[in-house]
């Protein structure tokens, strides 16, 4: 199946749209790595690379990691052999400025983005979804208090760690995050729509249905 689908992909969508869930499934079906900026950042810090050492100072002080460091991490990861034939970017770019920097990286590597998929979900659905999210403090496993709770309330099935509600998974904070996303991302969607590579997919409904909508947009 993988050869019939576009494999240099950007996934866009508001917090709670399901990008991470669908990216992991696409990773298996398409055979390409997911390049999530959060994962890249943690990997660089864990490995003690020069980029990771610089980024760690910002993380430990609670500051945002500057664009130039994030861009350098993306360039480094995209240069690795497993990304030569395809990749999915999740969480990057977040602005037109980052998209322009990505264009520069792609030109250097003689690559091009083939498809940008925006998962579109109603705000009230996102608020309900994220308000129900629970996360294990120990291993990071994600639960949903309504549809997928841990077997024992407050205790992780996998590691026995404490399952909590993140401080930013409360309705007021979620609405603010959605407002910030819309402000920063609308110009970005315009940027890719003008190139003819943006596709919008409804993120409402059954998870399998949404996934197959995404697959349909990736068909060659």
Computed structural class = alpha/beta
Query: How big is the Rg?
Result: 18 Å
Largest sheet: 5 strands, parallel
Strands side by side in the biggest sheet: 2-3-1-4-8
Number of strands: 8
Mean pLDDT: 91
- Listing every helix as H and every strand as E from the N terminus to the C terminus, the arrangement reads EHEHHHEHEHEEEHEH
- Give the N-terminus to C-terminus distance in angstroms: 11 Å
Helix fraction, binned, reads 40-55%
Which outline best applies? globular
% residues in beta strands: 15-25%
- Pick out the low-confidence regions: none
Distinct helical segment count:
8
Please outline what is shown here:
The chain is of the alpha/beta class and 220 residues long. It has helices spanning 19-31, 37-47, 50-60, 67-78, 96-109, 123-131, 171-193, 207-218, and strands at residues 8-13, 34-36, 87-90, 115-120, 133-136, 142-144, 163-164, 198-202. The protein has a 5-stranded parallel β-sheet, sandwiched between helices. A 3-stranded antiparallel β-sheet has the order 6-5-7.
Quick tags:
alpha/beta, five-stranded parallel β-sheet, 8 helices, about 15% strand
Task: Give an account of the 3D structure.
It is a single chain. This protein is an alpha/beta fold. The chain is built from 8 helices and 8 strands; from the N terminus they run E-H-E-H-H-H-E-H-E-H-E-E-E-H-E-H. A 5-stranded parallel sheet has the order 2-3-1-4-8, with helices on both faces. A 3-stranded antiparallel sheet has the order 6-5-7. Helix 2 packs across helix 3 (50-60), helix 2 (37-47) packs across helix 4 and helix 6 (123-131) packs across helix 7. It starts with 7 loop residues before the first strand and ends with a helix. The model has no long low-confidence stretch (mean pLDDT 91).
């Amino acid at each position: 199946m993988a050869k019939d689908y576009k494999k240099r992909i950007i996934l866009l969508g508001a917090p709670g749209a399901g990008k991470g869930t669908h990216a992991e499934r696409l990773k298996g079906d398409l055979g390409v790595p997911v390049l999530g900026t959060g994962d890249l950042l943690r990997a660089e810090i864990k490995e003690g690379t020069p980029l990771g050492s610089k980024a760690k100072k910002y993380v430990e002080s609670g500051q945002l990691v500057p664009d130039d460091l994030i861009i350098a991490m993306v360039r480094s990861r995209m240069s690795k052999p497993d990304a030569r034939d395809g990749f999915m970017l999740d969480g990057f770019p977040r602005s037109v400025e980052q998209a322009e920097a990505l264009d520069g990286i792609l030109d250097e590597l003689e690559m091009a983005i083939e498809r940008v998929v925006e998962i579109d979900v109603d705000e009230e659905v996102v608020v309900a979804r994220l308000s129900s999210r629970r996360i294990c403090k120990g291993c990071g496993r994600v639960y949903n208090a309504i549809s997928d709770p841990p077997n024992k309330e407050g205790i992780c099935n996998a590691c026995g760690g404490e399952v909590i509600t993140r401080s930013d998974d409360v309705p007021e904070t979620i609405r603010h995050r959605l407002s910030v996303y819309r402000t920063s991302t609308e110009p970005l969607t315009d940027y890719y729509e003008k190139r003819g590579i943006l596709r919008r997919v409804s993120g409402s409904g059954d998870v399998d249905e949404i996934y197959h909508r995404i697959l349909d947009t990736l068909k060659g």
